[in-house]
Each structure stands twice: as structure tokens, then as C-alpha cells.
Write a structure and sequence with these properties.
Blueprint lengths: L3 E6 L2 E5 L3 H6 L2 H10 L2 E4 L4 E4 L2 H9 L4 E2 L6 H6 L11 H9 L5 H24 L8 H18 L6 H15 L6 H27 L5 H6 L5 H32 L4 H6 L3 H12 L5 E6 L3 E3 L2 E3 L4 E5 H4 L34 H19 L4 E2 L6 E3 L5 E4 L2 E2 L2
């Protein structure tokens, strides 16, 4: 794979020939070419300056005073209707995130949520077991409904089914990555936001009178406006279903492709944590985070003008050969423990510990205990989608 550097102005290359359709099909060859030939470049087809190497992405994450999260005309804001905490800088971001942090820390997760995660995993496994033996799909029949039910309970939603909730998430994620401004995607976002708003119209007054440990309650009692509460709930719906769902299917696919890993996790459940961590690096679900430069800044010899919209390609950074030995190999127990799968700095993913616990330590071990002979059904196709947010959309499986 090669790219075309059409011009270099003020040290910033312009790269053409990158087709968003090809990015959605398989972004990794394009990422490798960008890291090799132009790790910082203006890419007109996605209307962003893309930073694709590890050092550049870390620099962007660690310098929020230059790389602001308060992005102008961000697609996420159009998708969910208002500006959530991840599209704000500190101290505003910190104040809103501080409201929900208490229920998302490891001790609280263990005390409040792990029992519920285990119950939901068992129910999702029952659903998978009931599927016609000829057509089970791990994404449709286990990963998506499980991720949705966990988040319904964590947020505190009532009176919404898992399929509707998962659809809201998929629509908001599609909108957040709608770099081509497809109207059909905006229509999906508007419909889902209207439906989700209708449920909150009843839920929020109830939680005002009956506070609990749910995220919606903590946001509501956190001193922010109702508009901000709703925006942050929709932000949570977006990533809180999408990323855990993709982790389930990515882990299952990689274990199928690497059967030599199975004896270790079967013998020692603690190994699931290492499998989860390497999968986040290898198939990073949050492929890109968006920033906006507050002033001119030079990165890797390229000068980026102020007010530029930036894409920090975390999925590419996690395959950077300057940091990871044999980066395109799936290797559990790597010496290089630091990756950017959850971002870094002040905007590191708030759901990191929830995902590690609910998926890495509970759902995946339970899946293989119930179906020890689980494997990919090679007679049907595995499908992927997305690059800014990327994951498996169909994973046909079978078992003995």
C-alpha cells in the first residue's frame, strides 16, 4: 500500500488517494503507509490532519492546551444533539466527569456492578444457546445484547429493550464518524435521539426524587444542566455498547485464529486480562479521537496551523513498530504494556475498568465455560465496519 504526497506546504504534507471506503474495509495497510511516509499529514478526503504514529498521538493526548477537545462542528455533537464532556476541555470536562467517576472505579464496580454483569452474561448466554444451531452469530446473539443490557443497568434506563438500545448506540456511533456527512446517518441519529429523549422525560424526574448509584442519577445530581446530563448519557450510550460489543467478537475471533492461546486461559482465568489487553491494542475499537489545535504547533517536523481539526489515529499508533516489537502480530503477554486503546491523559476512556471487568473478567470466561468448543463458522463470512470506530458486525460461530 502506498499513498500520494501531493504537496508539502510549511512542512505539512497533503496526502491524497486515501479512500474512506477503503478505510472502512481495512484501514491497517493505509495506517502503515501513513506512519512510514507521512505520520502527520493533511488528508482532504477525511477533512482532517491525521497523526498516525505513537509519539505524535501521545503528544496530542498529553497537551490538551494545544490539542483541544472543544472541536468546532464536531460530528459527535451533531449526532447526539449537544456537547458532551469528551468535547469539552478542563475544568468543564473534569467537573462533569467527576460526577460519574465514583461509580466507574474498580472498587465500586466490584461492589455494585459485577454481580449484575454476571447475571446479564448468563442471560445473554441463554439467548445464544436458544439460537437455531445453523445460524448463530456471536455479535447479534451475544455481544450486542449483553453490552446493551449491561449499559441499560449501569445508566439506570428503564422500559427499553436491548435491541432498541443497541440501535441507538449504533446510530450515534455512525453519526460521530460521519465524515462524509451522509444525510441518512443524520436521520438515524435524529430518530434515535427522539426515542431516547422520550424515555428520559420520565426517567429523569424519577431519579430526581429517588437518587441511586446509576450514571444517570449521578449526572443529574452532579450540578450540571439537564442538556448536559442528556448529552453525557447519549455519549455513554454511544461508546458503552459499541466498544464492549466489539471486544467480545474481536477476542473470540483472535482466539479462534490463535488456538495455542486457549490452554493458558482455560487453566488460569487471570490470563483473560492479558488477552483483553492485547486485543484492545491489536483491534483498537476507538480508532480515532478528534482534536482541534489552539495555536500553530510542530509535530514530527510538520507544522500544523491553529484551528485545524486533528484525527489522532489511536489504532495506527498501537501498531507502531517504533514502540511495539512485531506490531502486526497478536501476542498475549507482550513486554510493551503501554498502548493507547483507551486513550491517555485527561480524556482517557471513563469506561476502561467497566469494560475490563464486564467483558475481560466476566463475559469471556463465562462464554467459553458454557461453550468450550466455540469456534468461527468458516462457511459464513465475518464482516467488519468502520475505521474511526471499528469492529466486527457479524461473527458466525458454531460449537460442538
Amino acid at each position: 500500500m502506498s499513498i500520494t504526497i501531493e504537496s508539502v506546504a510549511a512542512g505539512l504534507p497533503t496526502v491524497t488517494g486515501i479512500d474512506p471506503v477503503e478505510l472502512r474495509a481495512d484501514p491497517y495497510p493505509i495506517y502503515a503507509a501513513l506512519r512510514r511516509e507521512a505520520p502527520v499529514a493533511w488528508v482532504p478526503s477525511v477533512r482532517k490532519v491525521l497523526i498516525s504514529d505513537f509519539a505524535g498521538c501521545v503528544f496530542g493526548e498529553q497537551n490538551p492546551e494545544i490539542f483541544s477537545s472543544h472541536v468546532t462542528n464536531a460530528h459527535m455533537i451533531r449526532a447526539i444533539g449537544s456537547r458532551p464532556m469528551v468535547r469539552k476541555d478542563d475544568p468543564e470536562h473534569a467537573a462533569e466527569r467527576g460526577a460519574v467517576n465514583p461509580t466507574l472505579r474498580p472498587k465500586k464496580i466490584s461492589a455494585l456492578w459485577n454481580g449484575m454483569f454476571a447475571t446479564n452474561a448468563d442471560a445473554a448466554l441463554d439467548r445464544l444457546a436458544d439460537v437455531d444451531a445453523a445460524t448463530p452469530d456471536l455479535n447479534r446473539d451475544f455481544a450486542r445484547p449483553l453490552a446493551a443490557k449491561n449499559l441499560i443497568d449501569l445508566i439506570g434506563y428503564r422500559d427499553v429493550d436491548v435491541d432498541t438500545f443497541a440501535r441507538w448506540s449504533a446510530d450515534f456511533i455512525a453519526g460521530s464518524g460521519n465524515v462524509l456527512e451522509e444525510q441518512s446517518i443524520w436521520d438515524r441519529c435524529d430518530r434515535s435521539r427522539t426515542e431516547a429523549d422520550a424515555v428520559l422525560d420520565d426517567l429523569l424526574p424519577y431519579l430526581l426524587r429517588h437518587p441511586d448509584d446509576s450514571m444517570a442519577s449521578l449526572l443529574l445530581h452532579g450540578g450540571m444542566s439537564e442538556e448536559a446530563v442528556r448529552a453525557n448519557i447519549y455519549l455513554t450510550i454511544s461508546g458503552g455498547v459499541n466498544e464492549p460489543q466489539h471486544m467480545v467478537t474481536s477476542i473470540a475471533l483472535l482466539l479462534d485464529r490463535h488456538p495455542e492461546m486457549r490452554p493458558a486461559v482455560d487453566a488460569d482465568p487471570a490470563e483473560w486480562g492479558a488477552v483483553f489487553d492485547e486485543t484492545v491494542r491489536y483491534y483498537t475499537p476507538i480508532g480515532m479521537v478528534t482534536r482541534e489545535t489552539k495555536r500553530d504547533v510542530t509535530v514530527a517536523g510538520a507544522t500544523i496551523p491553529a484551528d485545524s481539526q486533528i484525527g489522532l489515529i489511536l489504532a495506527s499508533a498501537n501498531r507502531d513498530g517504533n514502540v511495539f516489537h512485531d506490531p502486526d502480530a497478536f501476542r498475549v503477554g507482550r513486554d510493551e504494556h503501554r498502548h493507547l486503546g483507551f486513550g491517555s491523559g485527561t480524556h482517557m476512556c471513563a469506561g476502561k475498568w467497566v469494560a475490563e471487568s464486564s467483558i475481560g473478567r466476566i463475559a469471556m470466561p463465562a462464554l467459553y465455560r458454557r461453550f468450550p468448543g466455540l469456534r468461527v463458522d468458516e462457511s459464513r463470512d465475518v464482516t467488519w465496519d468502520g475505521w474511526a470506530f471499528r469492529g466486527i458486525t457479524a461473527l458466525p460461530v458454531t460449537w460442538n
